[in-house]
Structures are given as structure tokens and as C-alpha cells.
Write the C-alpha cells for this entry.
Amino acid sequence: MNSEIKKIVKQFKSKKGALISILQEVQKKYGYLSSNTISAVAEELKISENETYGVATFYSQFRFNKPGKYQIKACQGTACHVRGAKKILGEIEQELKITHGETTEDELFSLEKVACMGCCALAPVTVVNDKVHGTCTPTKVRKTIEDLKKEG
């Protein structure tokens, strides 16, 4: 892992304010920012782990838990909100027994609330990995989760 982190840091090190870009690339590579990757980035940049972690926690784009095989994003934007996004999110949380930012124990699912997916005409919307599920209902969400559990 450290050699991969070194490559990423080297790629951005000469740029001013590179920490965010480095953290983005590390997350892209590993799927999330673990305590080990944060330590390695801090070491390579010769800054404290606290400073690195402080920057990462400031931005909502960074994850600190390993994402599940199926990453579910539940839109909470205005159009989705008006059309029942809160119910949809509640159904997902109930079915998976996790909340925003968490991953199921079997690492099959992770859940993220997002501000807007840009699919307002299909509201309410969820996205599983890169597949958009529009005009969601609690029944549709349960069926999607059941199908994904069968696929494993």
C-alpha cells in the first residue's frame, strides 16, 4: 500500500494545496480512507495525521468506512424530498439495518444520503453503484435489495 500512496503523492506533491487531490486519488484507489492510508499520506507529506484527518473530515465526499459491494445512494434533493425520499431512505435503513455512512456487517451494502442526483424527473431516486432506480417506492426498494442479496 505504501508504494501506491507514494506514487499518488508524487503525482501531486508539487501542486499547491495538493492534500485534497491526494486524498481523492487515495479514496478512488481503495474505495475509502482508512486510518492506515491517512497515516501514509501524512507521513509522505510530512504533516500530522490530525491535520490530514481534519481536512478529510471537513469534506463530505470522503468515506472512512469500507464501502459495500453494492453502494446505495439515496437522493434527498428537493424533487425527491417532495415525492417521498424520506420514506425511501427509511425503508432502506430498515431493510439493511444501517444508516447513512454505514456498511452492513457482511460488507454487501453501504448507504449514503446525497443532496441531488440530477435525475429530478425520476424522483424519488436511488442509485446502486452506477445504476439509477427512478420513481422509487418502498416496495420497489425492498425488491431491489432482495434481488441484490440473491446475487450476493
In short: The chain has two domains: 2-58, 70-151. Residues 5 and 41 are 7 Å apart (CA to CA). The domain at 70-151 is CATH 3.40.30.10 (Glutaredoxin). The chain has a mean pLDDT of 94.
